[in-house]
Design goal:
Number of helices: 5
Largest sheet: 5 strands, antiparallel
Order of helices and strands: HHEEEEEEEEEEEEHEEEHEHEEEEE
Radius of gyration: 20 Å
Helix content: 10-25%
Shape: globular
Number of strands: 21
Structural class: mainly beta
Strand order of the largest sheet: 20-19-18-17-21
Length: about 350
């Protein structure tokens, strides 16, 4: 398949997803903090085909900056906006924005534990993954010697996560098999703690070839290790997602086994990403599946030993804090706990 045909197919799939998300966003919210549009000439002035965005304090000045992955268009370089006291300034001339690749996703973490945040960008079609290492003061340099990157490492989503609890974040890159030049299963790289990575080539999480979209690390069972989840399947068709339980706590070895039981694992869907967050503040992670088109988005409440599928709007709203004896009427709701833990972004 030619690169031009790959670009057309992938752009069509991503564009359809963007329309779906915009349509979903126009629905009446259940309950939400009000938001006010913020005019940003720098951000509004960039017109291209954006595939993802990440808030991250790349320069360590205490406020969140914005990194936008871009591709499948004439202007395919990614874009970085520095937050200067609430005003955004486009950063130019740095490696992060000179990638010249069809990027699908970025993930940020301090992989070498030196105090500077680093970035991995997954790319499709004409280029492979790119690792940008933080060198201090907001500078990031392309690293080609760490063992994660190059034309052979193509992927859709990507995510850092310390799956073996050794204090060093590891990397998973999702493989949309058969698209954008991808001919392998998912790619998992173990952080060796010396600035380099070793690829993990055994286990169902990497040997299974499928239409994997975005990966998520989350300790769904609360046992102290990160489990792994993929939005899976061809667009517009329903199937089961690929989910894997980490056996580190149970066996002492960070091996993965397929999760095949429980309503959240056995419901067919055409998901793009499985997000995990403790929406009801009960101490465990709940799952929200963002589907492409043929199935409505799905919410599953974690009840400890099992999951409950939420099918009515009223069930998804937190209790009124005024009705709780433990919080006053004007007390703020606690911040939700998400599946992303420091040093991840």
């Amino acid at each position: 398949m030619s690169h031009s045909h790959d670009r057309v197919m992938l752009r069509s799939r991503i564009a359809d997803l963007a329309v779906l998300l915009l349509a979903a966003g126009s629905a009446t919210p259940l309950s939400a903090q009000p938001f006010t549009p913020v005019a940003s000439p720098a951000i509004a002035g960039h017109v291209s085909f954006s595939t993802g965005a990440t808030w991250v304090d790349f320069d360590g000045d205490g406020d969140l900056d914005l990194y936008v992955t871009t591709g499948f268009a004439a202007d395919i370089n990614n874009v970085l906006y520095r937050n200067d006291a609430g005003s955004f300034v486009r950063v130019t001339g740095v490696p992060l924005v000179l990638d010249n690749s069809d990027s699908a996703c970025s993930t940020w973490a301090d992989y070498d534990n030196d105090g500077d945040v680093d970035c991995f960008v997954s790319n499709l079609v004409s280029a492979g993954g790119m690792l940008f290492q933080g060198t201090g003061g907001g500078a990031l340099a392309l690293n080609t010697t760490a063992g994660i990157g190059g034309s052979g490492l193509k992927g859709t989503g990507c995510a850092w996560g310390d799956y073996d609890n050794d204090g060093h974040v590891d990397l998973i890159v999702a493989a949309l098999f058969g698209q954008g030049g991808i001919v392998t299963g998912n790619r998992l790289f173990h952080n060796d703690g010396d600035g380099t990575f070793t690829e993990v080539t055994t286990g169902p999480q990497v040997t299974t070839t499928d239409s994997h979209h975005h990966p998520t690390w989350a300790d769904y069972d609360g046992d102290g290790d990160l489990d792994l989840f993929f939005g899976t399947g061809a667009v517009g068709s329903t199937r089961l997602d690929r989910m894997y339980k980490n056996q580190l706590v149970e066996t002492g070895s960070a091996d993965f086994t397929a999760i095949t039981t429980g309503i959240f694992a056995t419901d067919p869907r055409d998901s793009q990403v499985l997000s995990w967050v403790d929406y009801d503040d009960d101490g465990d992670l709940d799952m929200y599946a963002v589907n492409y088109s043929s199935v409505p988005n799905q919410l599953y409440r974690n009840d400890g030993a099992s999951f409950t599928k939420i099918t009515t709007a009223i069930s998804a709203i937190r209790p009124d804090p005024a009705a709780s004896s433990s919080r006053g009427a004007n007390a703020p709701l606690p911040s939700p706990r998400s599946s992303v833990t420091p040093p991840l972004v």
